[in-house]
Amino acid sequence: MYSYGLLYLPVSTYSLICASQLAFNAVFSYVLNAQKFTPFIFNSVILLTFSAALLGVDEDSQGTNGLSRGKYILGFALTLGASATYSLILSLMQVAFEKVIKKETFSVVLNMQIYTALVATVASLIGLFASGEWKTLEGEMHAFSSGRVSYVMTLLWTAVSWQIASVGVVGLIFVVSSLFSNVISTLALPIIPIFAVIFFHDKMDGVKIIAMLMAIWGFVSYGYQLYVSDKKARKTSVSVEENS
């Protein structure tokens, strides 16, 4: 859904819609996970959403020239649906951890990621062979500007890095909450331009700096709420121990 959305939409529009996933996650967390919204958490969600949206508006795009209205609407619907579905999956993972699995071990996190990745891999392979696109892989490899070895290495390390990131996402759901996991994921969007400047010598303009500062502000706001909650929980624990 994300791929077809990017195919049919300008980059700016696509980024703006993807930024809505944090808002979707906030709704699902409230309904499914009984997430309590304090002013600091609400502030964090708003800042990070607008930060990602601001970054999307600043991106260069080619507009909708050459695309029919039907494809544009389809791209919009698919991207919006993908954002909502991704947010729902995160909340459902938290439900599974809390009400179904009920185990506090790292192997639970790995099992969750391994099984979901396995299902996704099988589904992708079925689609690849059913569509006949596997026949074009060799030509795509030869056409890669950096060579065949670079093509294979790019695919390999992309897969490895995504698996590491996915374990991190699932781990944050397990340890904290699905909303905090999505907050960290959204935080990465405005931070990416820093690495683009360092490694690819991209330009850092004012809009990107503002988006980055908003993202950091939002993250600090959520982090402060976690600190306050942890401090309150420790005081309660100490009070209970003293009374007992």
UniProtKB/TrEMBL annotation:
It is found in: Membrane. The keyword Ligase does not apply. Keywords: Membrane, Transmembrane, Transmembrane helix, Transport. It holds the Pfam family PUNUT. GO terms for cellular component: membrane. Its main location: membrane. The chain crosses the membrane at residues 6-28, 40-57, 72-97, 109-131, 151-176, 183-201, 207-227. InterPro entries: PUP_plant. GO terms for molecular function: purine nucleobase transmembrane transporter activity; purine nucleoside transmembrane transporter activity. Belongs to the purine permeases (TC 2.A.7.14) family. PANTHER family: OS09G0467300 PROTEIN-RELATED, PURINE PERMEASE 11-RELATED. This is Purine permease 11. It comes from Zea mays (Maize).
